[in-house]
Amino acid sequence: MNNLNDLDRVAKSITELKEKVPLVQCITNYVTINDCANILLAFGASPAMCEAYDEVFNFVKLSSALYINVGTLTKEQEEAAVLASISAKMNNIPVVLDPVACGAIPRKLSVINRIFELGRVDIIKGNIGEIKFLAGEASKVRGVDSLENSEGALESCIRLANKLNCVVVATGKEDFITDGKRSAAIQNGTEMLTKVTGSGCMLGALCGGMAGSCEDKFIAAVAAVLSMNIAGEGAYEEAKVPGTFKVKLMDHIYCLSEEKLKEEGKVIWK
């Protein structure tokens, strides 16, 4: 059963984002950079795809949040991501980290560790395989994809959240969010989100938007995941094929409202 007070807070945060129009600096992968920019705009945020090493430190100071995605990590991106996270720590700017393929490519873990050592991370958003890997557990991955089911996922999230003192989001057939004390499982969504490139990256960007406008990062992460999943359900009702679905997904993100989240949200609070 939903905790209406928490669901009300989640829904209200959508309106607050649109009022604040947070500026989200994105250092993200080249496969989905345009998707991330457009979904932030549709959501009501302002994207800035600033990743040049000589620019990121100062640009973070202007931003409401920083989103780091290590999916197609170039050497300049690597150094820029670490430097930007240092600036975020110094200037109290929230950071969302998307550890794409960290379980498949060892170099990514070393970059993630540098970000945690030198900078800050407020929200980690990954698939279940990536989260289990970061929690120090055996995980099944294939490139950027997780082969894990939901068994033990929430427990892994809680361990990682307590270890790193941040909010953890694990996506799968059921999505889990926790700050180590409060937890939520979201049962909205559609399998069609796995049939288009960039749904995970776009969700990471939405987490950045919410982190930049909502003080409670647990509520922020729940709002981002719930928004993506409800928009996905609405898009799938209108489009049963991937190409049209992706266009409709953007439309439904744009049309989200407090009322829709409260009426359709399937959140189990734990």
From TrEMBL:
Keyword flag Metal-binding: yes
Protein name: Hydroxyethylthiazole kinase
Enzyme class: transferase
The organism's taxonomic lineage, starting at the top: Bacteria, Bacillati, Bacillota, Clostridia, Eubacteriales
GO molecular function terms noted in the UniProt entry: ATP binding; hydroxyethylthiazole kinase activity; magnesium ion binding
EC number(s) given by UniProt: 2.7.1.50
Pathway this chain belongs to: Cofactor biosynthesis; thiamine diphosphate biosynthesis; 4-methyl-5-(2-phosphoethyl)-thiazole from 5-(2-hydroxyethyl)-4-methylthiazole: step 1/1
Catalysed reaction equations from the record: 5-(2-hydroxyethyl)-4-methylthiazole + ATP = 4-methyl-5-(2-phosphooxyethyl)-thiazole + ADP + H(+)
Binding-site list for ATP: K125, T171
HAMAP family to which the protein is assigned, alphabetical: Thz_kinase (MF_00228)
